[in-house]
Amino acid sequence: MQLRYIGFDQAKNIREYRFESVAEGVTQHFLVSADLALFAQYHVGLQEGPALCLKRLSADLDTLQQLPHELTSDDFTALISAQAAAAERRTSGKWRNRRNIDQRPRE
């Protein structure tokens, strides 16, 4: 199933991200809600919202999780961990490359 982000609605501190899926001429609509306080608490930009919600919705649908679909603290901690791991890989790669350069035989 392919999901497509189609926008969001917001009421007070809750943002509902809207997705749709079209299969065999049938359109299904999905909502994933997110408390905006979680974005502030975890220092995550609102622009990350659609991708986070898509990941949550995909996981819910894969496990046949029923309503409601909503972002939780676990989704944000997983994102923070993944970002930290990616930063570590970038940093360690730079260090490794620098070390390799420093260890070349001198002419």
Describe the structure.
This protein has three helices and four strands; from the N terminus they run βββααβα. It has 107 residues and is α+β, with helices and mostly antiparallel strands. It has one domain (4-102). A four-stranded mixed β-sheet has the order 1-2-3-4. β1 (4-11) and β2 (14-23) form a beta hairpin. The longest helix has 30 residues, at 73-102. The chain is globular. The N and C termini lie far apart (59 Å).
Keywords for this entry:
107 residues; alpha+beta; 3 helices; 4-stranded mixed β-sheet
Q: What fraction, in percent, of the residue positions are helical? A: 40-55%
Number of strand segments: 4
Distance between the termini: 59 Å
Shape: globular
Domain module tally: 1
- What is the tally of helical segments? 3
Oligomer designation: single chain
H and E order = EEEHHEH
Low-confidence segments:
none
- Which strand order spans the largest sheet, edge to edge or round the barrel? 1-2-3-4
Major sheet attributes: 4 strands, mixed
Strand residue percentage: 25-35%
Mean pLDDT: 87
The structure class reads: alpha+beta
**Rg, alpha carbons:** 20 Å
